[in-house]
Amino acid sequence: EVYGMDLHPAARFGRGIMIDHGHGVVVGETAVVDDDCTLLHGVTLGGTGKVRGDRHPKLGKRVVVGSYASILGNIHIGHDSKIGSGATLMHDLPPWTTVVGHKGRVV
Length: 107
Fold this sequence. Notes:
The protein is mainly beta. The protein has a single domain (1-107), classed as UDP N-Acetylglucosamine Acyltransferase, domain 1 (3 Solenoid). Helices cover 0% and strands 33% of the residues. It contains no helices and 15 strands. It has strands at residues 6-7, 12-13, 18-20, 26-27, 32-33, 38-40, 44-46, 58-59, 64-65, 70-72, 76-77, 82-83, 88-89, 98-100, 105-106. The strands form 3 sheets. A 6-stranded mixed sheet has the order 3-6-9-12-14-15, with no helix packed on it. The radius of gyration is 12 Å and the shape is globular. The termini are far apart. The mean pLDDT is 94.
């Protein structure tokens, strides 16, 4: 089966990553996905287009990112956090945080 993913060759991935139904997943050049993270279909780990250099998200261990969520910019997502489907996130998150909704509301 063929999957339509755009994983930049310079992006860094830890061990035990699961990309479930990977269609539409985009991971930018300076993104980091640490051990045991899960990315569902349509996830974007992208830049904001405003800076050069280190410009993509860094995910801690065991982060789960729901389908069609967008995590943008040089931000850090703490370990064991959960990003809900369709959420847009452009700010750091501490560990053990859950975010839902288009505006990335912490619950």
